[in-house]
Amino acid sequence: MGSMRWNTRQGIILILSLLCLALGSALAWYAHAQESQRSAWVLTIDGAIGPASNDYFQRGLRKAAEAEAEIVVVKLNTPGGLDASMREMISAMLSSPVPVAIYVSPGGSRAASAGTYLLYASHVAAMAPATHLGSATPVQLGGGGIPGIGDDDDDDGNGNPSNSAAADDDAAADEAREEAASDEAVADEAREEAPAPRDERRRGETAMERKVLEDAVAYIRGLAERHGRNADWAEEAVREAVTLTSREALEQNVIDVVARDIPDLLAQIDGREVVMEWGERVLETADLALVDYDPDWRTQLLAVITNPNVAYFLMIIGFYGLIFELSNPGSLIPGTIGVICLLLALFAFQVLPVNYAGLALILVGLGLIVGEAFMPSFGILGIGGVVAFVIGSVILMDADHLSISLPMIGSVAGLAALLMLWVMTRFMGLRRAPVRTGQEEMLHVQATALEDFEGEGHVRLRGERWRARAAQPVRRGQVLKVVRIEGLTVEVAPLDDGH
To answer: Are strands 479-486 and 446-449 parallel, antiparallel or unpaired?
Structure first.
């Protein structure tokens, strides 16, 4: 009987062991299948191109390469952004071992300005219906070039006059405009069939603008030629800020695919040959598993910090925090918050297109406003500080889509002006207030006679025994008032009737 129970127990243990072994094998097989499954990584960029989107994009490419993904699909919707961030993203894309498909999606999205460059640089350029691209004219950063350099159109950039060439160009442009006005329908048809003549294209008014414009044209034409796309339209997008819908872009060989969604995109590009850094590659995108790589907390935090309005506000908080800490040593809280905010603002300004003249004006303005509180100048320092602060805030960042909002500038300047007005009002009130310390404060204070005297005697004044002088006879216990102080002697007089 005991032997039978023992055999039953062994059987149960054996069955459980086999079940555990089978379960472990199944889990191992499933994990291996998941790892070996061919996948397409999906990234999402929605908003202005900047340091945050650049960091997110490059980390996504690295992780997709580590996972040996077949392709990276970037869902793009952007009004443009920073040139430096855009170029770093393009460099990472061109050198990526994994093909990248830029997909302007969902419907209603756009790939304007920097987005157009990213679309041209991608291995596969795709758009959803009801989307558009273009307007790729570069916006000059930093408030213009150096005054007096490159502002004269009569110089060819090498010190040689070029008045006749400029006159010829103007005459040709005027003639073209007159012809277009005489026959607008013919001009519209000609613009649709072929790009504008080079003499009529935008070239920039100053030497600096021409340099920036020609550099952008050469850059986007190089990207277009690398992938066999329409380089002439790309140049028009840069020079004339023209745009195209998704259907028009497909017809003019600006993009490769118009797709309803990502599965439709992967089905259409299956078998397509793309140009990689090391050569050509045939895409195998059928039946790929989609792996979403959404922006994480790091990307979102970086995007918040590098928002111009947030960086600007952090700088203001940091500055005032340090001022309050220095005016009240040992408070700790204002100083701690001020240092943290100021460091975050400096980090943001490091990666944003900051005009340092504007930053200097802001700091000078804040310094003058604070100086008004410690060194009253009847408003001169305060008014000058507000003016410098507003001008510096306006010119601090003039990049397209990365400027500080005027309502925020007005709000901060208004608060600074109210603070200055409050300080001036307080100082004027203090000037009219009665004296609270020193000998002047003791005038008209009540005293009590300690003895009968005529001429000189003693009184009790604020708990102290004082020598007193009176012009009238004084009785002990009589209440007097101080009318004058000479050294350690007070001159007293009886209180008026009714006091």
So the answer is: antiparallel
